[in-house]
């Protein structure tokens, strides 16, 4: 890898109420080579969505520097986007799906070009101006951001050129990780959470949580000298894991608290074996999940129209069980979608953020990035 550039510009791709929802654009570090791309000044791009369980973080957190550098070095732009977070206001995964669609629409529109023009005229762009080829945008994300990538595969038109999901959620929600209340520690090295510390964020919400809209809630920890060292200073950070611990994550995801969707699925779901009966799980979900929510369950929307997809997971993931990726992979292969599943032995959730990840897994990162790059450049032939 040759790139060490961290140059980027921040743009607002939509506004909800008075809340701007932003994305960062990292320009290519390699020269445009094809005649067509040169004539149009167009480059491919990867649109990335961050993790955080949909409850916290922002476009700079859990950032895949390994992917951004490889994508930029291949002559492509890398774009990292925020989206609205659960639980704020009445926000659910439906609103996040809207944000995914709107982020794609922005990159494909004259508004994106106009935003770069304005920065260029003001001398604030910092790199040569370019356009994004609307037919050569890939979707990617880690953890909850993987669900956003699946949203793009299922619902964005025109389809993304390719998709990468790094330990992505959403491959199978009909399992005990989402539905079973936990009475013993279930995450590597972490005790059970105290719900009393997060009571404002437990349904029914406090007035402030019920009315706010939030799309930027970054990682923050107390300093080592604090009374509660190493614990999250951002109260939203434990929420997704708390909802998983309580067995009601899907209630917050859909907004179906009364009656509880989790209670409904808990009564029918745990007996189904994800390893051998993905089709039966799909039937159960379609039957028991209200129709208006089907669009936000990726496993209900897999079809032959999905773009090529690369799935990257740690074999020892305690947050998003490996069964999720295997379930989705089987469904993709059933529909004839070009799909690759890479399971990394001995690794847990967010293993790509480890300080030595590049040294340990650089060859795997090369293959994952090359999968996207090949699809993005193929459309320019």
From TrEMBL:
Keyword annotations of the record: Hydrolase
Claim: Hydrolase is one of the keywords in the record: yes
The UniProt record lists the keyword ATP-binding: no
Identification of the protein by name: Alpha/beta-hydrolase
Organism: Lentinula detonsa
Domain Alpha/beta hydrolase fold-3, residue spans: 46-168
GO terms of molecular function: serine-type peptidase activity
GO terms for biological process, alphabetical: proteolysis
InterPro entries, A to Z: AB_hydrolase_3 (IPR013094), AB_hydrolase_fold (IPR029058), GDXG_lipolytic_enzyme (IPR050300), Peptidase_S9_cat (IPR001375)
Gene3D superfamilies assigned: alpha/beta hydrolase
PANTHER family in alphabetical order: AB HYDROLASE SUPERFAMILY PROTEIN C4A8.06C, ALPHA_BETA HYDROLASE FOLD-3 DOMAIN-CONTAINING PROTEIN
Stretches assigned to the Peptidase S9 prolyl oligopeptidase catalytic domain: 298-359
Domain of life: Eukaryota
